[in-house]
Amino acid sequence: MKPDDCSYQIYLNLLKEELIPATGCTEPISVAYAAAMAREVLGVLPDTCTIEASGNIIKNVKSVVVPNTGGLKGIAAAAVAGIVAGDASKKLEVLGAIEEAAKSQIKEYLKAHTVTVLPAHNDIVFFIAATVKKGNDEATVVIEYEHTNIVQIVRNGETQFEKGDGSAEGGGLTDRNSLNVKDILDFADSVRLEDIAEIIERQVTYNCAVSEEGLKHDWGANIGKVLLKAYGNDIRTRARAAAAAGSDARMSGCEKPVVIVSGSGNQGMTASLPVIEYAKALHVSREKLYRALVLSNLTTIYQKAGIGRLSAYCGAVSAGCGAGAGIAYLHGGGYEEIAHTIVNALAITSGIVATAQSLLVRPKSPRRLMPAFLVTTCTRISSNFLAAMVL
């Protein structure tokens, strides 16, 4: 694939759009972003705040720790953190730089002010509306379909910004209809390193830092440490432990940013950390690692294209299959091996249902990777382990 090809630019734009930093679990951060923007539009610290959210948002925010709040959980905490100390210009890093004094202010605001959380009465899977009031002044910010996709801003009944239906539903993102495994592999093989080095190196640096934090310190359920202690230090266990430790730290309030994929930090870590661990074990070049991560990330994005940001289908399954594709690539696999790895891994794991962002998610993270590891090995050593279809 050549740099002046249309597909080349589409795939490169997808990586730039999707592989972005986020501090904390992305659903509460999206709530914080909406609330911070509403406060900015209002112009003063509000007396009241109302958050309307779709069911998937409520589910995913309910039990996860909001970063830089001293351990607070839930929609009200996320909204108040955004109102009191958030920087709306940072989007998914809106809570990335909160000082100690502000953490106390967040707790004080929660005690002294009313924060109302309501279910949204519409069919939009991803919906957040943050309304803040001070005296007779009121501001509302609405996010739909994607974590930072603001579709409407209203102040005192006057619409200051509104997206049309088409751009609102797509979130303004690059079209995914051209994605397919053969072209993704072609792009991974041919992309100029200077075009992707900064994007991929940031993913490696950020996600490894969060994973190491989860392995070294006491975060959440300590799944990564448990895996290493219970099952030893082989490469499969190390790869699973790396992803699990990152998930534990991130969802327990770790303030370090991660590079997300398809709007999810857990998917971002699942798609990258196992590939990075295998690259270390196989002693491959940095270039080979970069190309394998390009393949893993785009394969994850491809699978998620028809599912959407939030669904009952566990999105990290897609990331686990993406990681399997990346690992197959590190082993020298071509199109046939990579396609069979994806299809067979999906056949094994596709029934996993998404749960709330909580302790339940963390042990599921390494489970999503085991079928990918098994399929990658079987495809390499046995010509009989082939899928009935090729992507």
Describe this structure in words.
The protein is of the alpha+beta class and 391 residues long. The protein has two domains: 25-170, 60s Ribosomal Protein L30, Chain: A (2-Layer Sandwich); 181-381, no CATH class. Helix content is 55%, strand content 11%. It has helices spanning 6-18, 26-42, 55-61, 75-85, 100-112, 165-170, 181-190, 193-216, 223-231, 235-251, 265-282, 286-304, 315-330, 335-349, 361-381; strands at 21-22, 48-53, 114-119, 127-134, 137-144, 150-155, 158-162, 258-259. It has a six-stranded mixed sheet. A two-stranded antiparallel sheet has the order 1-8. A hairpin with a 2-residue loop joins strand 4 (127-134) and strand 5. Helix 11 runs antiparallel to helix 12.
Number of helices: 15
Q: Give me the secondary-structure category.
A: alpha+beta
Give the biggest sheet. 6 strands, mixed
End-to-end distance: 18 Å
- Tell me, rounded to a whole number, the average pLDDT: 89
Keywords: Membrane, Transmembrane, Transmembrane helix
Protein name: Inner membrane protein
InterPro entries: Ser_deHydtase-like_asu, UPF0597
GO molecular function: L-cysteine desulfhydrase activity
